[in-house]
Amino acid sequence: MSGDVHTLSGAYALGAVDDVERAAFERHLAECEPCRVEVAELRETATRLADDTDLPVPSPGLRERTLAQVARTPQLRNPPTTGSVKPERRRWRGWAAAAAAVVVAASGASAVTWSVSSDRLGQEQAAGEQARQVSEVLAAADARVYNQPLRAGGAATVVVSRERDQGVVLLRDLPQPEAGRTYQLWLLRDAVPRSVGLLNTGATGTTMVIGPVSAAATFGVSSEPSGGSPAPTRIVGTVELG
Amino acid sequence: MSGDGEQARRLRSVPSGAAGRPDADELLHRVARGDEAAFAALYDAVAGRVLGLARRVVRDPALAEEVTQEVLVEVWRTAGRFEPRRGSASAWILTMTHRRAVDRVRAEQAHTDRMQRAAARDSHVSYDEVQEEVAARLEREQVRRCLGRLTPVQREAVTLAYYGGHTYREVAEHLATPLPTVKTRMRDGLIRMRDCLGVSLEAGA
């Protein structure tokens, strides 16, 4: 990778080049494998900047118009390719995106201290009591995030603020519960379980504020007969909080 | 290696911010074969982020909707040309969105005007569903935290380019800074972001 062209990788990944430079840089990329890896990573990184935008709800009209246009738009055929086009298996090391969504910069079960600037959160209006509580937990100076796939499938994210004595649980993509059963949430301390919530019948995910978290060391999800149980009978996954 | 397969599936895609949906990579693969139902699902998975980014760059809700429609139709049209080894489906779609949005603003608006507006940002957040919002918020906070770790000049260069839709030449001119310096700030800034976010692309078997 020749020095001068190569320094354009950041501007290129940010889309901050003109058409001529883009074409020149892409010719360079075709000959430079290490550059391709760097650019792919920087481009993924630049894409994450899109996460720091408000998420508007697209109007139903937009959806209709787009789907209608697609229905009458022919697709381009693949261009003739040289070499293998077999999609390579790729791994995102350290990009802990649970199937759901939550990204925590670490691998496996992880904890990150979130420093959230309170003025930014102050700008955002939470609708509803739950959203307000969720915001408060996330904004807590000591909030820590634990993110882990569950044994039975799906993933759990638990955000805990010991100062507020509250947590937020996000569960996603659990297997469909068997008939007559539902998921129940627990906090465990010294192997003593305490029920902190019950999912609706048939639900495979939730966002819930839990508490008090006090000195709980483990969060657990179990499958129970509808209505819940006094103690967990079939644990489907746990998250260590510490 | 079944655990490894699970891991790969779980870690692969850019988060879609919604529960229970197949990931964008998988959907795009089906879209490439002409599957309209998969396109509708892909639309539902990414339209919010596409529209959000388009709005952030073009600053006009109606224009942002136009860009969104154009981009998603283009996704449909060119899905067969997506190369998974060059990045995730979400990155492909959002890169296209950014390019299209930037083309619009570059065509339509004067520089100074945009420089000023790029500095301001919307503060309104519409809550759809708490669950999606929490996930989106965690992602945002992580991006903000990582942006906060850049030096002020790196952050300025990166945000003027990405959110403001400016070329590095325009940024250099605006900041009265030499071109190589601006290029370096953008690259070093993104590298620092990459490491903070833990983005890593490993091609391999």
Automatic annotation (TrEMBL), chain A:
Keywords: Cell membrane, Membrane, Transcription, Transcription regulation, Transmembrane, Transmembrane helix. Gene3D superfamilies: Anti-sigma factor, zinc-finger domain. Residues 95-233 form the Anti-sigma K factor RskA C-terminal domain. One of its GO terms (molecular function) is sigma factor antagonist activity. GO terms for biological process: regulation of translation. It is found in: Cell membrane; Membrane. Residues 4-36 form the Putative zinc-finger domain. The keyword Transmembrane applies. InterPro entries: Anti-sigma-K/W_factor, Anti_sigma_zinc_sf, RskA_C, Znf_put. Pfam families: RskA_C (PF10099), zf-HC2 (PF13490). One of its GO terms (cellular component) is plasma membrane. It is a single-pass membrane protein. Residues 220-242 are annotated as: Disordered. This is Regulator of SigK. It comes from Micromonospora endolithica.
From TrEMBL, chain B:
The keyword Transferase does not apply. Keywords: Sigma factor, Transcription, Transcription regulation. InterPro entries: RNA_pol_sigma-70-like, RNA_pol_sigma-70_dom, RNA_pol_sigma70_r2, RNA_pol_sigma70_r4_t2, RNA_pol_sigma_r2, RNA_pol_sigma_r3/r4-like, WH-like_DNA-bd_sf. GO terms for biological process: DNA-templated transcription initiation. Pfam families: Sigma70_r2, Sigma70_r4_2. GO terms for molecular function: DNA binding; sigma factor activity. Residues 1-23 are annotated as: Disordered. Signal peptide: none annotated. Residues 42-109 form the RNA polymerase sigma-70 region domain. Residues 140-192 form the RNA polymerase sigma factor 70 region 4 type domain. Belongs to the sigma-70 factor family. ECF subfamily. PANTHER family: ECF RNA POLYMERASE SIGMA FACTOR SIGK (PTHR43133:SF66), RNA POLYMERASE ECF-TYPE SIGMA FACTO (PTHR43133). NCBIfam families: PRK09646.1, sigma70-ECF. This is Sigma-70 family RNA polymerase sigma factor. It comes from Micromonospora endolithica.
